[in-house]
Design brief:
By secondary structure, the protein is of the alpha+beta class. It has a single domain, classed as 3-Layer(aba) Sandwich (Aminopeptidase), CATH 3.40.630. It has five helices and seven strands; from the N terminus they run βαααβββαβαββ. It has a seven-stranded mixed beta sheet, sandwiched between helices. It is globular, with a radius of gyration of 15 Å.
Length: 158
């Protein structure tokens, strides 16, 4: 179900995460740089295709040997509530555990309570002292992951 994607067009990615254009200044250019990083081996895309169309994606970037940044994470608006996000984040977490990753992090819009709850449910914790400015009226919360905070550590593999 979850696959590593070696190449992805900006248009295909934006069909999954269209909010990037609304939430971030220069969101399309930022996404193109992340996709270029992946093409150059400086990042990885995991995706879930359904009917030959990408339905969910995650872009992660190594930040040293034992740290990962979850740069982008999303489920296509017409594919939400099917468990795709949970399957994708579980695949990421299992790969981090298998690779000996000690820390991962993601930023979440402080007004996006649904996404915030999603990451809390899947082993991330708040770093409440950190707020990242993404424009005049936009702040993101930093959320971190480590094996010690992950409920998968005690759970058997499927």
């Amino acid at each position: 179900m979850v696959r590593t994607c070696s190449r992805l067009t900006t248009d295909a990615a934006l069909k999954v995460v269209p909010a990037l254009l609304d939430r971030y200044e220069q969101g399309g250019a930022w996404l193109e740089r992340r996709l270029d990083d992946v093409a150059a081996g400086r990042g990885r895309i995991l995706g879930i295709p359904i009917a030959n169309r990408l339905a969910a994606l995650a872009i992660e970037t190594p930040k040293g040997a034992a740290c990962r940044k979850l740069s982008t994470f999303g489920v296509a608006p017409d594919r939400r509530s099917l468990g795709l996000g949970a399957a994708l984040i579980e695949a990421l977490r299992r790969s981090w555990i298998d690779q000996g990753v000690e820390h991962a992090y993601v930023t979440v819009d402080h007004m996006d309570l649904q996404t915030h709850r999603f990451f809390l449910k899947h082993g991330f914790v708040d770093a409440p002292e950190v707020r990242i400015r993404y424009g005049v009226d936009r702040f993101d919360c930093l959320m971190t992951w480590s094996p010690s905070s992950d409920p998968l550590i005690a759970a058997p593999l499927h």
